Each structure stands twice: as C-alpha cells, then as structure tokens.
Amino acid sequence: MASILHQVLDRLDLVLKANVPPGTSVWRGRTDAQSLAEAPGINVLAREGNVESFSAEMDLHQVFIDLRFYLRAEPGDAAAEVLHAAVHPAVVTDAQLAALCESRRLADYSFERAEADTTVTHKSVRYRFTYLIPATSL
Fold it and tell me: How far apart are the C-alpha atoms of 11 and 45, rounded to whole Å?
C-alpha cells in the first residue's frame, strides 16, 4: 500500500489538473528548467516534514508541499495570483484530501522574477498537510 504522502501527492496531482486553466501544465517533482513555451505551469514538490508522537500507537505527521507556479506574463504577480486562486479552493476543500489529512493549510508564499526577463515570474506556495497515522505506518 502506498504511504499517505504518496496518496496525498497522487490526489493533489489530480486536483490540480482538474482545476488549472486550459493550457496550464502540472508537473510533479520536475527538476529541469521550464522553457518559455511551457508557461504557464505548476511544479509540485514534496519538501520537508516532521513527525511527532501523538500517543503510544499514533504519530502526527506534518508535511510541506510546494507548488511552484511558472508564468510568463505582465504583470507576473497578478497572473500568478489568478493561477493560485484557480487551484487554492480545491486544494483545501477536496474531499479525498480531507479523508487523508486532518488539515491542509497555506503556510507561506513568495515571488521571484527572472533578472534577464521580468515577464517570467515564479510564485512559490507552501502548503502544510497534517495527518495522524499509526506509528507502524508511513
């Protein structure tokens, strides 16, 4: 059976693909740079997590997952907000994600613009997924 994190990432992939505007790509753990022709897109990256003992049998997991929005538009920050607004409600209200996680919360975000081309904007959005599982499971 897949770990809870793997199930969350699989579901998040489906939720994003179902809610992005037409022509927007969704990647998972992509490590190579996006080309100009691939904008707009979202790269999903699992980041750090922590585990705390909740009881003798249960552990509380908090995992951070970054959504990196890649856009080529003027103004880039406004375009990034439109893309984020298209997917955010689904991320925090999806019933299957709710069944896997007690909490899905926006943790923080930041903007980055390419120095050589200010129409290229990245918005990094970090979500915190919290779930309670038996200590013998992942």
Answer: 14
Q: Evaluate if residue 110 carries a pLDDT over 70.
A: yes
Residue at token pair 């995992």: 63
Residues 6+ apart with CB under 8 A from 68: 42, 43, 45, 122, 123, 124, 125
Residue 22 φ then ψ, to 5°: -55, 140
CA distances from 63 to 20, 45, 84, 91, 110 (A): 23, 11, 20, 14, 19
36 φ/ψ angles, rounded to the nearest 5 degrees? -60, -35
Per-residue pLDDT of 66-98, as tens digits, reads: 999 998 877 767 888 999 999 999 999 999 999
**Separation of alpha carbons 77 and 120, rounded Å:** 10
pTM: 0.88
- Of all residues in the chain, what percent carry a pLDDT higher than 90? 71
Please tell me whether residue 22 adopts helix, strand or coil conformation.
coil
